[in-house]
Design brief:
About 30% of the residues lie in helices and about 15% in strands. It is an alpha/beta fold. The model has no long low-confidence stretch (mean pLDDT about 95). Strands 1-10-9-6-2-3-5 form a seven-stranded parallel β-sheet, with helices on both faces. Helix 7 links the parallel strand 9 and strand 10. The protein has eight helices and ten strands.
Length: about 260
């Protein structure tokens, strides 16, 4: 696993945005997997700035999402589809047809999960998947003890997750859905490049368990150790529990520039 320690979230966003831009320069129709939440926003802002500056032509790029609420009506402003269209697709100047995601309002939710897995495969697979990490080590909505071979499926949100997400629903937890569709860990691991961004001291224990601990379902993100091209980018606070922090700093500082991420 490649671990890069950066000064702050902005630096992490710039670094990942350049990796995404480099990918799109090599493969103009790359399929980019995105995550929601506040952590990846610096990435999207930096990538959109590169597009506006003419540093990269993203007009043929494709976007797919990691997870989606179940039961929100089409066009609901807090559906993850709406969030991705608003925060990623539109700022990159892409048409909505460039977007792929599971149907969280489908009558047959399990069928929608299976259809999304098929759609990703038929699209040629995800070239780069962005990930965040929870304080308990979850990725997507794969909570601790999720199968490391799991496919896209429906999951029940924990009460704490619903409490945390209530801020996006005017503080009303009753408006927060109880279920989500999430790419499973097995699905996530099929992406060609996995890039996880973590910032803040609150993520330090999860990062240490992910990078330096054993591969175990109790820390779902530890499955990234099984991937041939996984990059973990953390700020100094999130890296504070890493025993090998100095080694990671030295390795990246002396990495040939042409290798990128």
């Amino acid at each position: 696993m490649e671990v890069v320690i950066v000064p702050d979230a902005k630096a992490g966003g710039e670094l990942i945005a350049e990796a995404m831009a480099a990918l799109v320069r090599r493969k103009s129709d790359a399929l980019l997997g995105v995550a929601t939440g506040s952590t990846p926003l610096p990435i999207y802002e930096a990538l959109a700035a590169k597009v506006r500056a003419g540093e990269v032509d993203a007009s043929r790029a494709r976007i797919c999402q990691l997870d989606e609420y179940v039961g929100l009506p089409a066009g609901h402003p807090e559906s993850y589809r709406s969030v991705v269209l608003r925060e990623v697709v539109a700022p990159l100047g892409l048409d909505e047809s460039a977007f792929m995601g599971p149907d969280g309002s489908a009558a047959d939710v399990q069928g929608a999960c299976e259809a999304y897995d098929r759609a990703l495969a038929e699209a040629g697979g995800v070239d780069l998947q962005l990930l965040g990490i929870g304080t308990d080590g979850h990725i997507g909505f794969n909570e601790p003890c999720s199968s490391l071979a799991s496919r896209t499926r429906i999951k029940t949100l924990t009460e704490q997750t619903r409490v945390d997400n209530a801020r996006f629903f005017d503080g009303d937890i009753d408006q927060v859905p109880h279920h989500v569709i999430t790419q499973g860990i097995g699905t996530i691991l099929e992406a060609r490049h996995l890039v996880l961004l973590a910032t803040g001291e609150g993520k330090a224990d999860a990062v240490a368990a992910t990078v330096e601990g054993p591969v175990a379902s109790v820390v779902p993100a530890s499955a990234l150790q099984l991937h041939p091209h996984a990059t973990v980018i953390v700020d100094e606070a999130a890296a504070s529990k890493l025993k090998l922090a100095d080694y990671f700093r030295h390795t990246y500082a002396n990495k040939p520039e042409w290798q990128g991420l």
